[in-house]
Amino acid sequence: MQNIRNIAVIAHVDHGKTTLVDGLLQQSGTFEAHKEMAERVMDSNDIEKERGITILSKNTAIRYNEYKINIIDTPGHADFGGEVERVLKMVDGVLLLVDAQEGVMPQTKFVLKKAIELGLRPIVVVNKIDKPAAEPERVVDEVFDLLVALEADETQLDFPVLYAAARDGYAKWNMEDENKDLTPLFEAILEYVPAPEGSAENTLQTQVFTLDYDNYVGRIGIARIFNGRLKSGEQVMLAKANGEQKKGRVTKLIGFIGLERIEIDEAEAGDIVAIAGFNEIDVGDTVTDPTNPQPLDPLHIEEPTLSVVFSVNDGPFAGREGKFVTANKLKERLEKEMETNIAMRLEQLGEGSFKVSGRGELQISILAENMRREGYEFLISRPEVVIKEENGVRLEPYEHLVIDVPEEHSGAVIEKLGRRKAEMTSMNPMPDGTTRIEFEIPARGLIGFRTQFLTDTKGEGVMNHSFLAYRPFVGNVEHRTNGALISMENGKALGYALFNLQDRGVLFIKPQTEVYVGMIIGEHARPNDLEVNPIKGKKLSNVRSSGADDAIVLVPPREMNLERAMEWIEEDELVEVTPENIRIRKRYLDPHVRKRMEKQKKA
Fold first, then answer.
1. DSSP β-bridge partners for residue 397
2. Element of type H or E holding 462
3. What is the per-residue DSSP string for 554-593?
4. 458-487 pLDDT, tens per residue?
5. pTM, whole model, 2 decimals?
């Protein structure tokens, strides 16, 4: 029997989870000394590297003395909460990382709540103690208060605390201790994380908690063995969550060590492995003994709260920039995503349009960004919340919103959120001069709020939110108050025309950008939509006048990335996504059709 410890690293976004795992990998001797290691080595996806956030939970294993420690690095963003919840069922302890300056944040509460419900005892690591405004004592008190609020039991309240700077690779038991290495953290894991329960002699019980895909072997289930032994090539029973049972063979058994995946012949109770051989394998399924099947309880997967419609691009520029533009290609790619991303749902609405539901705007925009980079071209509609009906009452998702703003901007933010049906629950001054305000708000009220929030706080505000509950529908929520500037011509935008349009509102395009009828080129300064001509050139005459040829000075356009565009659009608008450009357009390009549709809607 190996000495195994299974642990998950949980924290709010950007509190240093992935950096800490890097340190543990390096200092455990899992990497040879001569191997070069990239920074934040666990963030494997390009978008994760660019944004510095973890999107997919990933596991690694390190050897330390006689022990094998399986570590799972979890996402800190609420949109990926479903991922965290499942992972916690597979481990026996958690490392809770908290930033020594920021303290307890909404996602910290979200993930910690799940861990407490499952009876896990946290090892608290106060990270980034080298920050000038760090207050480790206050942060430990905050964690204790949070645990009390989450109704933790006495063992959980008696949590060990370490102080660390993951980037510099040290952890210590007391602030006065010398900054050496991460040995105290390794010791804490071995001492406070219980050994896995279950025995290699019992009937086989293995539960899948996340999925992977390989072009050669198909679907791979990453699973924890709770009881028994699992051998490569043996006959097993796959017990599905819906009660269905299928016999099959384990064609490949893969073990983890460092960042490597190694084929192994056998694994036993307590270990985390990857299994290939079943095309229907899904999260929550149990791999068990075919002669004496003993399925485990299926895992609860969080419901999606937001949906958007992906559809085939039917604009004038369709097929110019993308490699994959047909409905079949779009459908295949979305179905492939559903194979590994179980927090999302897909349904076909009609010819060439697909409704994708997920946990939040970030999750959906990351899928769209990945597809765009792979050469797909498509249209996306405005995000809508998923409405449920129970006993004849319409329910909508609510979010717990926490914002940190400089004191002078708090009034403007509270006023804007009030219009979006938010209720303030608390307001506390922070030591760094900002104010932390907490709200409960319908998820609809957050769509499109981020851009306005950053403008109101001059880019200094920080907002975070996590799913709260489904509550009765509250009626209309205020949306975008400004109309759109719509192109009435096809062609290339000219500096002269844009210069004259600047007074009308904020532009999204530069000179020489190709435009078409019905494309949105900016935000109008007033509430109504306005049709404009961005390709109108200057009439040249042979009469000179003083001052007529003054240099044209253009204000830089507002950069519209995918997330911003999705937040900005209204119901009758779409985002056109291609590998090279992101354009915003009206759903109906023809102005006559648009007017007719508006009349029908009012009628």
1. 470
2. strand 462-472
3. -PPPPP--HHHHHHH--TTEEEEE-SS-EEEEESS-SHHH
4. 877 877 777 778 889 887 877 778 899 999
5. 0.71
